[in-house]
């Protein structure tokens, strides 16, 4: 028998544990149906622990996670913890230490989900953003001069490396090939080459070089500002987008809105290298004001589990979960907003299981 899928689970803060519970419920059901086994180990990392111990990612924490096949993260963010501490100390720290250089964010409008764009339906909104996840302004390079004086200067440096952009661009081309869009395979580089003439020139040249290895894929380019317009006006234009960390952060929030909000958007932080460990998460935050009320939407969390399965050796199980999600959004749920779904958090989890 195949060895069990070993999962590290970090439920996190606020409503994180509630949506994680639903994702795990669905995992239990699909494992039974598809006949695979798994083990979970839960880590109590997040705001509560930080308030007690002062630790965000405990010493040796990333090494501990390297022993797993994948990581599932609920949500981090606690009202009593200053903004930035958990985001940087836990989430970004894990992405960096585990070198999860691909941030994969599907922008897919599920059936039945309300879209703020007039006249657009699921047939128009179905693309994927591949965001670089380890460099750019996120590298944490910068500093102050004459801090707290009237002459203060601050720098925050965007760092791009040939290796860093090449590996994620190559992954994005491979992904575009596998995705095999019947409308034609196209990878759009989103950057700002007209202004960021050093760093994004490196991205541009690397993109052109790597594109030569993928003659079947149309290598396309958009400036990031234009991309924001097209995402609203013609989202059907896109197949796969590859972009820098900072721009990817911004355009994927726009993406989340056109696909129906944070209640449905999920993402993966992927290290595709041999021995790499990837982490999947719903995109929404910990929504502390809804904690314990059974009103938060678990669809994003369940979709994150579907992604985890897809990328961790159980693609059939992942696809089946994705299918069930779409049946539930398409035929059952009134809304994707907390408290307005027509069902509670747990009931939505049950519905997905019933539709597997
Ligand atoms: C995201 C989040 C994070 C980011 C924050 C919480 C640091 O916004 O996953 O997009 O900026 O990457
Ligand atoms: Mn973000």
Automatic annotation (TrEMBL):
Residue ranges that the Swiss-Prot or TrEMBL entry lists as coiled coil: none
Keywords, sorted A to Z: Manganese, Metal-binding, NAD, Oxidoreductase
Isopropylmalate dehydrogenase-like domain boundaries: 6-352
InterPro entries attached to this UniProt entry: ICDH/IPMDH, IsoCit/isopropylmalate_DH_CS, IsoPropMal-DH-like_dom
Highest taxon, organism lineage: Bacteria
Database matches in Pfam families: Iso_dh (PF00180)
GO molecular function, one term: NAD binding
Gene3D superfamilies xrefs: Isopropylmalate Dehydrogenase
Cofactors, names only: Mg(2+); Mn(2+)
EC numbers on record: 1.1.1.85
Matching PANTHER family: D-MALATE DEHYDROGENASE [DECARBOXYLATING] (PTHR43275)
Designated name of the protein: 3-isopropylmalate dehydrogenase
């Amino acid at each position: 028998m195949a060895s069990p899928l070993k999962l590290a689970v970090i439920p996190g803060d606020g409503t994180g544990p509630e949506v994680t519970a639903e994702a795990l419920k669905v995992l239990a059901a699909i494992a039974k149906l598809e006949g695979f086994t798994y083990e979970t180990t839960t880590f109590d990392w997040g705001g509560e622990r930080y308030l007690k111990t002062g630790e965000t990612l405990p010493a040796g924490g990333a090494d501990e996670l390297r022993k797993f096949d994948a990581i599932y993260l609920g949500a981090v963010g606690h009202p009593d913890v200053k903004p930035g501490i958990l985001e940087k100390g836990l989430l970004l720290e894990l992405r960096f230490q585990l070198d999860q250089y691909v941030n994969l964010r599907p922008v897919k409008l599920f059936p039945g989900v309300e879209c703020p764009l007039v006249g657009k339906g699921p047939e128009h909104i179905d693309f994927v953003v591949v965001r670089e996840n380890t460099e750019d302004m996120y590298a944490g390079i910068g500093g102050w001069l004459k801090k707290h004086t009237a002459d203060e200067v601050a720098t925050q440096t965007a760092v791009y490396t040939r290796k860093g952009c090449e590996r994620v661009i190559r992954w994005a081309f491979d992904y575009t090939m596998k995705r095999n869009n019947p409308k034609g395979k196209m990878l759009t580089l989103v950057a700002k080459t007209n202004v960021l003439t050093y760093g994004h020139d490196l991205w541009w040249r690397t993109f052109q070089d790597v594109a030569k290895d993928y003659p079947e894929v149309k290598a396309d380019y958009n400036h990031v500002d234009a991309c924001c317009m097209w995402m609203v006006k013609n989202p059907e234009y896109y197949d796969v987008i590859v972009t820098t960390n900072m721009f990817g952060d911004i355009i994927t929030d726009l993406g989340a809105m056109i696909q129906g909000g944070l209640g449905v958007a999920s993402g993966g932080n992927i290290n595709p290298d041999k021995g790499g460990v990837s982490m999947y998460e719903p995109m929404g935050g910990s929504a502390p004001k809804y904690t314990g009320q059974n009103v938060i939407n678990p669809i994003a969390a369940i979709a994150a589990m579907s992604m985890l399965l897809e990328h961790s050796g159980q693609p059939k199980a992942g696809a089946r979960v994705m299918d069930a999600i779409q049946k539930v959004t398409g035929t059952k749920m009134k809304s994707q907003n907390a408290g307005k779904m027509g069902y509670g958090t747990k009931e939505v989890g049950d519905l997905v299981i019933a539709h597997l």
